[in-house]
Amino acid sequence: MTLIRQMAALWEVPLGLLSYGFSRVVKATLTLISRYYNPTDTKVEADWQVISADFLKSPLKLLWTMSRARWNLHSLIAIAGPFTVQSEITLDVRSLWQSAPTWTAVVYTLKGYKTLTSISSLTVPPDQDTATITLPPGRYLVGLRHYDWRNPVQLPAIAVDGNPALASETRSAPPDFNQFYRGLASRRGLLFSALNFYVYPLLRWMQWLPRSVVKPIFLPVPNPETHFFYGALDRGEQLTIDLPPTLRDTHSLYFSLYSRDCFPMDWYPLVTDNHTTKPLPEQGVYILRVHPKTPAAMAMSKPAIQFSVT
After folding, report:
1. Which of 75, 87, 160, 190 has the CA that lies 20 to 30 A from 302?
2. Using CB atoms within 10 A of its CB, is residue 110 exposed (0-12), middle (13-18) or buried (19+)?
């Protein structure tokens, strides 16, 4: 660590702590607002929402999203719910297989938006029509991630406790659907800078913190089947990634770059065993998602990937 970086820590760490506290206040405030307008959640009917430019047009939805997750820029994401469940929820997985060769359906608690369980193309055979998930009584959301999706996407029908709860829907989803993320940077401002200022120092000096602390803060709702590698880059720095020779045979690798305030900058799959990024035009952070292609690959340990910064 250079002297300049050591000096930067003197002000970035205290401001990062303030930012983290502010982010928790924002998250709690948004939760209270939603409860105020709908104290019991009983008036809200379950529906489908696809993360898109229209979905994020509302400043409140953009703020809600950025206070709860990191952008998965490589998948088409749909959210279903809320559902009041007594014992089980059932998905029509035929629609998921028709929509994408690789998919994940994750169940989140409505309160706190915590990951509870998941099913995926790695755990459900292609010839199976439905998949039932047993749950304790409560209120839940279902989040879908479609990788290499086909146009149009068929969002699955969902039943709760044996009763139809949400009908299937077909949505147009061309291959460039996620290009709307590139326009989000025009909405950057002081609010989002304050909201996510803590992220850069968290990752820049994460070697001084337990991994059990860093990961849930930086990745509050990660895909349970994906391995994650992440870090911070200074302006002008380049990241070199060296992969084990056979890793791309067993896993799909998705690289994402974000600005310091966590707006999308660039994203692409890794198609070579050695990759060096362009010099970063500003301070930012990155995520490398390593997703298994087969059930056998899912059982493999976290791969040994080499990262170097110049």
Report:
1. 75
2. middle
